[in-house]
């Protein structure tokens, strides 16, 4: 009777523990399913990377998943620590990766072994799991790690990735690293069942890690590409075959006036791009696979300046023939090129005009004199004609000299100086007298103090500077007014200003006014005529003397040109040390 009773209670106890085991197994299976689920999610994410735009969150999600993984493995195996080690082909080492469970970041960083060493190495090389019960005395363990990580016992399994064919048959197995669990909780020992469990978990984990790695590589490659595109000087816009924008770099956003922080990715290009020619380019590329180019002119939204872009469209094809991915357009800023071209054309026509005007009058008076065989014109009139011819010839010579000087300066040769002491107020007086003979509408007023110092300079060049500035002051004050030439000694320099009450210079032209060929183009300036090289030469001449030149002006009110010359020009300097301003 006793025996029967004992037997029954034994059976009951066994049954209870069996039920417990069943529950345990059911729980494990749930965990496994969850793992598989998160793995599938990851895999899906990886597959869709090509379309993903928000990459950083996905990466942290991966970290999260890995974190959950190590956590769960540790829980399931009731271990205090769990860590993955991956094989680094370049160094031949196995290294611990973040995130791990029960290890600090420092411990993870220093947990690294050669793939030929220790338990990690053995598991990796043999692709077989290992269980060890006494880490300190086990000959296979590496003592420094046992000490560092305070390992008592553990199970280690290989991380094996299986490649499968379409029928889900395994065609290849690669060991990418190992997974360790250390220290059974509550002072317990690991058992063989733990080994099998870890092997199974390791298989899932390996798949997750591999897709995470691939994912990360893809993301990094993509980020690199995006950064490269973003920092391109040229504008770049990419649209997919569904007419939606997939890329638009900073330069392109600027062209289309898209505000910082405004997101255009994913929007139909027709909503974002309002320039008809560009839309047509995309349309042709996407529908007819036609790769064209156009030139567009856009007002820059920041500087208000007009910019010219050459836009080139290209069709983006997939690997397969006729597989259209989308279209890309590149925007090259050719404003400067076009400006120089425009300036050169304008220059050629103004120079021709400037050359023809004096020539026409020279030719006219010479012909008149030649035809006058009868002596119709008296001597005085003849002299007058010759005087005009003389003046016009001078004008021609000046223009040609100017042109030669510009080309001399452009080819890097500085103009020669011939410095000697000069009396600047007297020189200004001579220039003013000549200029007064050209105008009746302007009063040229000179203001120099009595004790104005003698300066050492090239007299012809200073004459040229003053002539140009005073002549401009007259030329660009069509309604007349005062032209004031003022000189002030200032320390080791003299400051000269030439002011007028003329048309003034629009603000946006002020920074460019001393550039060669630069002219303000409006009705007044067109009437005045000119070549746009005067101020360029003046600036060069002032700087040749070691001086500086600048202008202040208000449109409609007048302009004042200032230049400062040292009392003595600096000794000859090598070309590249010359001041540029
Ligand atoms: P040019 O007079 O032959 O055109 P410059 O180099 O002397 O060439 O001058 C360049 C431009 O600067 C002129 O075309 C004119 O638009 C502007 N400018 C020069 N001086 C004056 C001035 N005193 N007032 C207004 N505009 C001026």
Sheet/helix structural class: alpha+beta
**CA-based gyration radius:** 44 Å
What share of the residues does DSSP label as strand, in percent? 15-25%
For the record, give the distance between the C-alpha atoms at the N and C termini, rounded to a whole number.
118 Å
Q: How would you name the oligomeric state of the polypeptide chains in this document?
A: single chain
**What is the overall pLDDT average?**
86
Helical percent range?
Answer: 40-55%
Say how many strands there are.
Answer: 18
- Tell me, briefly, the overall form: elongated
Number of helices: 15
Which blocks of ≥5 consecutive residues have pLDDT under 50?
Answer: 46-56, 576-581
Architecture blueprint of SSEs:
Blueprint: H1 2-47, H2 55-76, E1 79-88, E2 93-96, H3 105-110, E3 112-114, H4 118-126, E4 130-132, H5 143-148, E5 154-164, E6 170-184, H6 192-231, E7 235-240, E8 245-248, H7 250-255, H8 269-272, H9 276-288, E9 293-299, E10 306-317, E11 324-333, H10 335-371, H11 379-410, E12 420-422, H12 424-436, E13 442-447, E14 455-457, H13 459-475, E15 481-490, E16 493-499, H14 523-528, H15 534-544, E17 548-554, E18 558-566
Parallel strand pairs: 13-15
Antiparallel strand pairs: 1-2, 1-6, 2-3, 4-5, 5-6, 7-8, 7-11, 9-10, 10-11, 12-14, 15-16, 16-18, 17-18
The structure holds adenosine-5'-diphosphate.
Adenosine-5'-diphosphate binds next to helix 13 and helix 15.
Q: In words, what does this structure look like?
A:
This protein has 581 residues and is of the alpha+beta class. It is 46% helix and 22% strand. It has helices at 2-47, 55-76, 105-110, 118-126, 143-148, 192-231, 250-255, 269-272, 276-288, 335-371, 379-410, 424-436, 459-475, 523-528, 534-544, and strands spanning 79-88, 93-96, 112-114, 130-132, 154-164, 170-184, 235-240, 245-248, 293-299, 306-317, 324-333, 420-422, 442-447, 455-457, 481-490, 493-499, 548-554, 558-566. The strands form four sheets. The protein has a six-stranded antiparallel β-sheet with strand order 3-2-1-6-5-4. β9 (293-299) and β10 form a beta hairpin. α10 (335-371) packs antiparallel against α11, α11 crosses α15 (534-544) and α12 (424-436) packs across α13. The N and C termini lie far apart (118 Å). The protein binds adenosine-5'-diphosphate. Adenosine-5'-diphosphate is lined by residues 472-473, 476, 500, 502-505, 513, 518-520, 525, 530-536, 559.
């Amino acid at each position: 009777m006793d025996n029967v009773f004992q037997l029954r209670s034994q059976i009951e106890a066994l049954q209870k523990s069996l039920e417990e085991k069943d529950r345990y197994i059911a729980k494990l299976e749930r965990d496994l399913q969850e793992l598989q689920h998160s793995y599938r999610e990851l895999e899906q994410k990886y597959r869709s990377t090509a379309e993903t735009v928000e990459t950083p969150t996905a990466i942290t999600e991966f970290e999260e998943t890995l974190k959950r993984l190590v956590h769960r493995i540790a829980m399931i195996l009731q271990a205090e620590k769990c860590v993955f080690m991956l094989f680094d082909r370049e160094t031949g080492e196995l290294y611990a990766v973040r995130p791990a469970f029960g290890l600090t970041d420092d411990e993870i960083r220093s947990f690294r072994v050669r793939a030929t060493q220790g338990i990690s190495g053995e598991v990796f090389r043999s692709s077989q799991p290992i269980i060890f019960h006494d880490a300190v005395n086990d000959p296979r363990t590496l003592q420094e790690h046992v000490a560092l990580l305070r390992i008592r016992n553990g199970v280690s399994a290989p991380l094996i990735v299986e490649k499968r064919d379409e029928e889900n048959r395994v065609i290849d197995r690669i060991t990418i690293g190992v997974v360790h669990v250390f220290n059974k909780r509550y002072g317990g020992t690991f058992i063989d069942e733990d080994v099998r469990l870890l092997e199974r978990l390791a298989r899932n984990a390996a798949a997750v890690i591999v897709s995470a790695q691939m994912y990360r590589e893809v993301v990094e490659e993509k980020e690199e590409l995006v950064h490269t595109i973003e920092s391109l000087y040229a504008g770049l816009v990419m649209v997919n075959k569904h007419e939606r924008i997939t890329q638009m770099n900073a330069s392109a956003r600027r062209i289309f006036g898209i505000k910082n922080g405004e997101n255009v990715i994913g929007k139909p290009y027709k909503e974002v791009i309002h320039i008809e020619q560009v839309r047509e380019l995309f349309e042709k590329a996407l529908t007819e696979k036609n790769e064209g180019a156009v030139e567009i002119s856009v007002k820059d939204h920041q500087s208000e300046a007009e910019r010219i872009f050459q836009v080139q469209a290209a069709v983006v094809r997939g690997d397969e023939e006729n597989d259209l991915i989308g279209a890309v357009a590149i925007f090259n800023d050719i404003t400067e090129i076009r400006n120089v071209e425009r300036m050169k054309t304008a220059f050629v026509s103004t120079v021709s005009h400037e050359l023809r005007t004096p020539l026409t009058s020279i030719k006219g008076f010479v012909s008149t004199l030649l035809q006058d065989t009868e002596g119709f014109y008296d001597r005085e009139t003849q002299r007058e004609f010759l005087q005009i011819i003389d003046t016009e010839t001078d004008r021609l010579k000046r223009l040609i000299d100017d042109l030669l000087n510009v080309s001399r300066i452009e080819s890097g040769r500085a103009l020669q100086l011939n410095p000697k002491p000069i009396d600047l107020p007297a020189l200004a007086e001579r220039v003013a007298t000549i200029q007064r003979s050209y105008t009746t509408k302007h009063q040229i007023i000179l203001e120099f103090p009595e004790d104005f110092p003698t300066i050492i300079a090239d007299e012809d060049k200073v004459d040229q500077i003053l002539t140009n500035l005073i002549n401009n002051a007259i030329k660009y004050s069509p309604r007349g007014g005062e032209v004031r030439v003022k000189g002030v000694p200032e320390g080791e320099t003299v400051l000269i200003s030439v002011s007028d009450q003329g048309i003034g210079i629009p603000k946006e032209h002020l920074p460019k006014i001393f550039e060669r060929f630069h002219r303000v183009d409006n009705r007044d300036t067109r009437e005045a005529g000119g070549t746009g090289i005067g101020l360029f030469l003046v600036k060069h001449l002032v700087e040749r003397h070691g001086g500086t030149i600048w202008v202040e002006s208000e449109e409609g009110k007048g302009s004042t040109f200032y230049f400062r010359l040292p009392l003595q020009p600096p000794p000859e300097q090598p070309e590249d040390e010359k001041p540029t301003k």
